[in-house]
Amino acid sequence: xxxxxxxxxxxxxxxxxxxxxxxxxxxxxxxxxxxxxxxxxxxxxxxxxxxxxxxxxxxxxxxxxxxxxxxxxxxxxxxxxxxxxxxxxxxxxxxxxxxxxxxxxxxxxxxxxxxxxxxxxxxxxxxxxxxxxxxxxxxxxxxxxxxxxxxxxxxxxxxxxxxxxxxxxxxxxxxxxxxxxxxxxxxxxxxxxxxxxxxxxxxxxxxxxxxxxxxxxxxxxxxxxxxxxxxxxxxxxxxxxxxxxxxxxxxxxxxxxxxxxxxxxxxxxxxxxxxxxxxxxxxxxxxxxxxxxxxxxxxxxxxxxxxxxxxxxxxxxxxxxxxxxxxxxxxxxxxxxxxxxxxxxxxxxxxxxxxxxxxxxxxxxxxxxxxxxxxxxxxxxxxxxxxxxxxxxxxxxxxxxxxxxxxxxxxxxxxxxxxxxxxxxxxxxxxxxxxxxxxxxxxxxxxxxxxxxxxxxxxxxxx
Length: 463
Ligand SMILES: C[S@@+](CC[C@H](N)C(=O)[O-])C[C@H]1O[C@@H](n2cnc3c(N)ncnc32)[C@H](O)[C@@H]1O
Hints:
By secondary structure, the protein is of the alpha/beta class. The chain has 16 helices and 12 strands. It folds into 2 domains: 19-95 and 272-300 and 323-460, Rossmann fold; 114-260, no CATH class. Mean pLDDT is 89; it is low at 1-12 and 435-444. S-adenosylmethionine (SAM) binds next to β2.
């Protein structure tokens, strides 16, 4: 068990301290963080596409803020920045619109009593196993009435009947927990048994990537066929899945998450995660000391909802609602009701070039840059003068045109009053990289080289 330790932080109090120079220095240093591990603590609670290595927000928090300062992440995802702020004794404020991201980030920054978690965990598993073994009929009839038709179809397509019974037995126990933080913690353990790289206990072969493929042959751990047929030539290994017991997987995941549990949070420091749109923040003007954030890719290249719905349907979210919600994400491809903003020259030229290849895609990217214009405008409004926003982006290649996200966002930011003293480059670990759906790998192509990089844009709000 990891006991919360006090992290030693650097306090920048030696005048004359040149903040802008420090920003440039930090952006010029190593931003790859290869071989430095994924961190400990509740960072390990749940997978999340394109999440920060904890070292990244840590570097800027330690280098650019003091204890008790306020750090914002307006597209907080799994809450890496806010957890790092808390661990470094800074106040953290995170917003997101994704229901699962909000659950993950909130519980990651919540201190819980270890004994209560261990005891509740034991109860959940033993009661759920008992219900599954002794009360199957009751579970079967609940399964029949729990969802609307479309959500039901989704669940029937992606989960075997036995897995459905196991998961229902578990989630019913979790829903019965009175203490909200404890319930949220176990919802996350539950979700992490489904959303894993291997597709967890669903029939998907991979839920860490964005396009789930369904297994054609499903076998038990002892090799018995559950669904599908074994091909005679043995080629069926491809698209084969070994399905495990949801109870065993839940227990395994619980053990892992117990190791990351925060059992005491620093006193007097707040870490808040709230539902909210990064384009319109309920945050006062000039109140934030540092922003560290990363928006989605343009053109929905990483589709969060595609994987998140696999566990959200078990927590009361209907599939139709989630489909509608997906259209609200920055970078979504829906362009029906979107307000376009005026673009500065370089960005406009790039959009015109893309429109020559594909007008619709160009409008999708125009939507993205319009949304990001409003996001950057909000960042400028809420930042204190003389402070910075660190925005991490990847570029996308659409119809052979590089969206040059880092250069367009820098230009848009400058147009709004920011200075952009430096754009740092982060080389992604190729083995770990989750490429946007549809991306083909050709390591010699220049564009592909860039797909293995992220850009760390330093926006500075002048005094
Ligand atoms: C690249 S992820 C952030 C990952 C995060 N840095 C981490 O370490 O987990 C981008 C996030 O932006 C969120 N998002 C999309 N549209 C948003 C909006 N309008 N307002 C706030 N968040 C939004 C997505 O739900 C997603 O969680």
